[in-house]
Amino acid sequence: MTTPRITPAVLPAPAAAPEPGAAAPVIRADAVSLVRDGNVLLDSVSLTVRSGEHWALLGANGAGKSTLLGLLGAVNHPTRGSVEVLGRTLGRVDLRELRSLLGHVDPRHPLRSPLSVHEVVLTGLTNSVEPVPRRSVSEEQLDRAERLLKVLGMGGKSGSRWPALSQGERGRTLIARALMPQPRLLLLDEPATGLDLAAREQLLDSLDVLREEHPELATVLVTHHLEELPASTTHALLLRGGRCVATGPADEVLTTDRVSDCFGHPVRISRTDGRWAARAQRVARR
């Protein structure tokens, strides 16, 4: 089998000042690199996410997707370059304070207690795994939790206990939890991990509905698989070996040639009813 040669993609020039009426940047990462123990995990990656945009970060295992998401979520500092999140520059702001302004969904949520779905969602107000003792919750916050659960298809599960939930139900509960502080930015780290077909489709449908209900919200979603992208995805960034292969509007980036370059394997990309699919292309055998 032959592996396609990676060719540099023509990337859009860095944006200057936004045009009048353009949404303000929620994230601006400029030529960021991250080196750990002598290993280059990210190499000069740039990304600008504006309000109302929905980005996908794609690449093979080890490409640097979750590492980049960690920078965008104020978990780590870059070795080189700069990262601005919600107008605040990493290195000049309290990371704990900044993280409290973001919605971060990790399917490996470490909860062990048998909290109800409603109680789990309310922990998003304090960004804690367990409820904070003696903290009161307003009627408005209780109503918000219920509204978010309904939007995400969990309205009938409010009283269900965490251990009894399916993986898909947990994922949708965690998205509602992340949205409780009303963040402008939602980060999703492989939210479809471990889901069966039906649960995955329910999750993606819920994300599409959520984005309609909150048009100002910006989202960044990490995945390996194009089939796990909601139809409402607007932009994409392809990573390979810590470097950007292509970035820009989803229809311009998620093409057969560019995705094949990114994964180092010939694939054919199609899109039906707004959803993407990838199929391996036959390679001539000698």
TrEMBL record:
Q: Where is the signal peptide?
A: none
Q: Where does the ABC transporter domain start and stop, copy by copy?
A: 27-266
Keyword Acyltransferase among UniProt keywords: no
Q: What's the superkingdom here? A: Bacteria
GO molecular function, one example? ATP binding
In its keyword annotation, does this UniProt entry include ATP-binding?
A: yes
Keywords of the record, alphabetical order, are:
ATP-binding, Nucleotide-binding
Which PROSITE patterns would you find in this protein's record?
ABC_TRANSPORTER_2
Its name, as the record gives it, is ABC transporter ATP-binding protein
Q: Which organism is it from?
A: Streptomyces gelaticus
Classification from the root reads: Bacteria, Bacillati, Actinomycetota, Actinomycetes, Kitasatosporales
